Amino acid sequence: MDYFSAVHAFVRAAELQSFSKAAREMTVKTSTISRYVSDLEKDLGIALFNRSTRGLVLTEGGRVFRERAILALEALDDARQATSSLNSSPQGLLRVTLPSAFGRRHVVPHLPAFMTRYPDIDLDLVLTDETVNMIDAGIDAAIRIGVLSDSSLMAKRLAPHRRIVCGSPNYFDRNGMPSVPADLEAHESLRLSLLPGDKWLFTRAGKTKAALEQTPVELKGRLRANDSEAVLDLALAGCGIALLPTWLAGTALREGRLLHALPEWEARTGKAEPAIWAVYPPKKIVSSKVRSFVDFFAEVIGEPPYWDDGISKHA
Fold first, then answer.
1. Is 167 found in the same domain as 112?
2. How many domains does the chain have?
3. Crossing angle of helices 30-44 and 3-16, rounded to 10°
4. What is the pTM of this model?
5. Structural domain of residue 134, as residue ranges?
6. Which Gene Ontology molecular function entries are recorded, alphabetically (predicted)?
7. Buried b (16+ CB within 10 A) or exposed e, 82-120
8. Among 75, 113, 184, 226, whose CB has the most other CB atoms within 10 angstroms?
9. Are the beta carbons of 62 and 32 closer than 8 angstroms?
10. Per-residue pLDDT of the chain (315 residues; tens, 9 = 90+)
11. Do 174 and 263 sit in the same domain of this protein?
12. Where are the alpha helices (DSSP H) in 85-211?
């Protein structure tokens, strides 16, 4: 008896509750499935199915055997994938979802190098600021920004998500430069409406975690937007002070089109520390195409991230 084929046939017949359906799926004769099950029953000395007009029904022994058989088949498949992956190059279609602004600025520009390094991978990008259900949408990997909610997804931290208080030289010429967080209450604040509340939380830069004490600042201002690039454009136009991520505002800061305010303070929109993550569905063995994508961008971003070059360490 081909024990592996027999166990596989039994598991499929149990799930489909039919020898004929299992046979069609496995492209063999129904009599072959029946023979496999009969051979297993002789080997085990117990009936695995009860036959009825409604189809196949597992016996108690059949239920016990099916549970263990599924685990054995999964373990064997994992072993096969782990071994075969040693000699296979990353290949196939890779579907990735990305935040729109971050994706355009820090993923798309590096894709030519990725495609050159991995010529057998095809990419399907989904740029959206909505959190996509990866399993339902058939997504292989995602880049997400912020604090990850509890989920069954696997995650690799790619970079910190640093935000800094900044504004245009023209704005500060007209309204003065704040020296402490409380000064912001007298300024026009440009807010991202996707974030909860109208407060920024500040801590002294360089403090140990044990000594950190967050100072909330109530924000005032006439402008808010649901798009981070729009907030950047408003800050560049001198409309107010913004709290922007360094991956978005870095170029403008280095060019002097934005000025870093309150450099001795760290600012957040919430108590938890946000980050930039690569996430992917949980599997015992991560596919080589997903691993290649995650490792490539971890390498490209670097530590500290390349977009922080030329920006003061405290942000």
1. no
2. 3
3. 110
4. 0.69
5. 100-160+278-308
6. DNA-binding transcription factor activity; sequence-specific DNA binding
7. eeeeeeeebeeebbbbbbebbbebbbeeeeeebeeebee
8. 184
9. no
10. 788 889 999 999 888 888 888 899 888 999 999 999 999 999 999 999 887 767 788 999 989 999 999 888 888 877 776 665 655 678 889 999 999 999 999 999 999 999 999 999 999 999 998 888 887 788 899 999 988 876 778 899 999 999 999 999 999 999 999 999 999 999 999 988 866 667 888 988 766 444 446 788 988 889 989 889 999 999 999 999 999 999 999 999 999 999 999 999 988 888 788 899 999 988 766 788 999 999 999 999 999 999 998 886 543
11. yes
12. 100-106, 111-117, 134-137, 169-175
In a domain, 109, yes or no: yes
What token pair was written down for 165?
A: 């208080």
Q: Which pair of structure tokens corresponds to residue 186? A: 């007298």
Q: Where are the alpha helices (DSSP H) in the chain?
A: 3-16, 19-26, 30-44, 60-84, 100-106, 111-117, 134-137, 169-175, 228-236, 246-254, 288-301
- In the chain, the amino acid numbered 125 is L
* Residues 105 and 99 sit within 8 Å (Cβ to Cβ): no
280: helix, coil or strand?
A: strand
Q: In this structure, are 78 and 153 located in the same domain?
A: no
Record the tokens describing residue 112, joined without a space.
Answer: 């030519």
Q: What angle do CA 275, 278, 282 make, to 5 degrees?
A: 125
Give me the CATH number covering residue 233.
3.40.190.290
Place of tokens 């990725």: 114
Q: Are residues 248 and 288 in the same domain?
A: no
Q: Which domain CATH number covers 104? A: 3.40.190.10
φ, ψ for residue 118, nearest 5 deg? -125, 80
Q: Does some domain include residue 167?
A: yes
Across the strands, what pairs with 126? 97
